[in-house]
């Protein structure tokens, strides 16, 4: 759910200390990170299936009207995402016209065999949820979702039986639940610890908001939950906080030539994180983001160094 409406100067490339891309470093047995075609992949704990560690969010950025230049531009954004090895696209009925835009873009690209489709149910009552989920399938142009999530925990007890029925009927493959902006973390923690049916959980985490490291990420790892991270840029706030500040000279050792890559590598290198979903409306920014899928993976000591440097320069 991270807005891509960031001014270009705040995301400009920092041409210092760039190193050649190297093989990704191991994160240990719990993370089970792997690379295919030089992409960092992470496992879905429930099955062992792997997905690229950077996906694409659609909040704000894909809420665009039909028959507009903006809709045509989103086709190119999605094309760049898939060309860079992306798979997981996350949306929601809450995001206005985003689901319709995703479906249109898929059609313009001739489909997307590598797509990992992730959306949400966002309405009270089970009956309304069924109608909303069926509409989402039509908008995306799919017969099955890879992941259906309960958006912001809204009436999750009513929707869970439907999600389980759809999973049994192969209309979706995984079940999930979400929150954002640091809200309702206590309730999310309780669900992680006590509700075994959710394969995925989604919440906010970034180098500037590391509260999830304390309880949510360890609990999800301990109970075999895949974790999607929204707001990895804190809706652009991180770029504002480092505007005019240089990347550290050692950023090149991590394969980072832009702040976006520095922020994303910090998030996806956490052993408990499965996938981060930054959003953007710009092809250049998409390519820049996706470059963080490749190259060295920061280890625990490097992650501490990254956090300390950010805290120092961001104030």
Characterize the structure shown.
With 315 residues, the chain is α/β, with parallel strands linked by helices. It has a single domain (8-314), classed as NADP-dependent oxidoreductase domain (TIM Barrel, Alpha-Beta Barrel). 35% of the residues lie in helices and 15% in strands. The chain is built from ten helices and eleven strands. It has helices at 69-83, 98-108, 126-140, 156-168, 185-194, 216-222, 237-241, 259-268, 283-290, 300-314; strands at 34-36, 39-43, 50-52, 56-57, 88-90, 116-121, 145-150, 172-178, 200-204, 226-230, 275-276. An eight-stranded parallel beta sheet has the order 4-5-6-7-8-9-10-11. Strands 1-2-3 form a three-stranded antiparallel beta sheet, with no helix packed on it. β4, α1 (69-83) and β5 form a beta-alpha-beta unit. α1 crosses α2 (98-108), α1 (69-83) packs parallel to α9 (283-290) and α2 (98-108) packs parallel to α3 (126-140). The radius of gyration is 18 Å and the shape is globular. The two termini are 24 Å apart. Residues 1-36 have low confidence and may be disordered.
Helicity range: 25-40%
Beta-strand segment tally: 11
Any idea how many domains? 1
Q: Helical stretch count?
A: 10
Give the integer mean of the pLDDT values. Answer: 90
Largest sheet: 8 strands, parallel
How much strand content do the residues show? 5-15%
User: Which class do the helix and strand fractions yield?
Assistant: alpha/beta
Widest beta sheet: strand line-up: 4-5-6-7-8-9-10-11
CATH architecture: Alpha-Beta Barrel
Q: What is the top-level CATH class?
A: Alpha Beta
The CATH superfamily appears as NADP-dependent oxidoreductase domain
Radius of gyration: 18 Å
Distance between the termini: 24 Å
Low-confidence stretches: 1-36
SSE ordering: EEEEHEHEHEHEHEHEHHEHH
CATH topology: TIM Barrel
- Write down the overall geometry: globular
